[in-house]
Amino acid sequence: xxxxxVLLSGGLDSTTALAVAIREGYTAHALSVDYGQRHRVELDRxxxxxxxxxxxxxxxxxxDLRAIGxxxxxxxxxxxxxxxxxxxxxxxxxxxxxxxxxxxxxLALGYAETIGAFDLFIGANVLDYSGYPDCRxxxxxxxxxxxxxxxxxxxxxxxxFRVHSPLLKLTKAEIIRLxxxxxxxxxQTLSCYxxxxxxxxxxxxxxxxxxxxxxxxxxxPDPAFA
Length: 226
Description:
By secondary structure, the chain is α/β, with parallel strands linked by helices. The protein has one domain (3-225): 3-Layer(aba) Sandwich (Rossmann fold). Helix content is 38%, strand content 11%. It has 8 helices and 5 strands; from the N terminus they run βαβαβααβααβαα. Strands 3-2-1-4-5 form a 5-stranded parallel sheet, with helices on both faces. The chain is globular. The termini are far apart. The mean pLDDT is 96.
């Protein structure tokens, strides 16, 4: 079973990506990043789902992106609430964290080199997060090319790095149905950008709205709002 590094935030998408990696026969090493996000309670959920889904390891890397700010998730900026579907679908929202996926994939790549892995999994989705430039297939393909140029393992021919984004073109409802079929307990995930001190979702931010819409379209109750 080949090793794979799976970026795991503790949210719905990354948890599903972890389940897919395990289904596809990879030995999954989950990697979470505490980057100073206001919703860092998601990291507690990441630890739970990593263990329940069968990741062989779960590591947390700590760095502080609050030092550069520029996002409602890392600076003193309001998280948008109650936006319409049309507003969510257009433009780059203030919840975009500058260069986040580049940084996270870079960390995953470094971890992969240390364990002899050539497969990186990320729960990027271009349909729901069309405004996020680092969720686009062009970005993921470019990073894959970079991985094979910028590493000892890649340049010495030990293997070829691949970036897997199994959810990239799925709707939220399709992601949820897939996860349910793989035994994912979405009650253990957190998607909210602005949860309360107890980790309860706000139900009004973009991420909560996309999640609620996805469960509704999948014809399933969302355990996060039970």
